[in-house]
Amino acid sequence: MTSPVFRRFWRSDHAASAAEFALVLPVFLVFLLGTIDVGRFIWAVNESEKATQAGARLAVVSDVIPGGEIGCSDTGNNNTTPGLLCYSYALSGNVPQGSPVPKSAFPTVTCSAPGGSLGCTATSAPFSTAIDASAQAAFDNVVARVNDLQPRADADNVIISYAWSGLGFAGDPNGPDVAPTITVSLTGLQFRPIFLAGIFDFGLPAQSYSLTMEDGQG
């Protein structure tokens, strides 16, 4: 025979709302934290987009990175192949004075600093792509500008490339013979969601922005 006390306990609906809340709370937290993470993710993507824009705007009015100021000094070694800034396609590249430099004579140059060591790579570049103090400072300045708007970014994440644009002319006495299209890219950035207590990270999409070089001499 069932005890009256047990029957009263079985029929009691006291604290029913608390039990229902306990059931709903996990689902509510999942939606809440998920919504916050979506907003944080969109914000981080927007930071990266704006950071590449600002980095490109600085890069196009900064010193040229490939080759820096190598070969620019009148007292330097005449046997040294100049960097992009001071290389003359008219004197050394067999391009007629005043003519646009053909695309075939200007390979895309990519500059990056994996592991903190800056280097520029290109296929068969006629000019030097070595790194001097001027080139390092120019790259560091762009990285710093990018980091202002995307704090997750450092030198490992920034890639700066120089591509033929069709602008400029051989033998330009006032700057580089080519005014390349400069692209600043951000890659390899990670995003850690609050959801699941940050157990895992996943990558932010790569971002890039391009402008045509305006100065090249800082």
- Tally of individual helices: 4
Outline: rod-shaped
Say how many strands there are. 7
Helix content: 25-40%
**Helix vs. strand class:** alpha+beta
Largest pleated sheet? 5 strands, antiparallel
- Estimate the strand proportion: 5-15%
**Poorly predicted parts:** none
Encode the helix/strand succession as letters.
Answer: HHHEEHEEEEE
Strand order of the largest sheet: 2-1-3-4-7
What is the number of domains?
A: 1
The average pLDDT score comes to: 88
For the record, give the distance between the C-alpha atoms at the N and C termini, rounded to a whole number.
95 Å
Our Rg estimate from Cα atoms comes to: 29 Å
Protein name: Pilus assembly protein
Transmembrane segments: 21-43
Domain TadE-like: 16-57
Keywords: Membrane, Transmembrane, Transmembrane helix
Summarize the structure.
It comes from Qipengyuania atrilutea. The chain has 218 residues and is an alpha+beta fold.
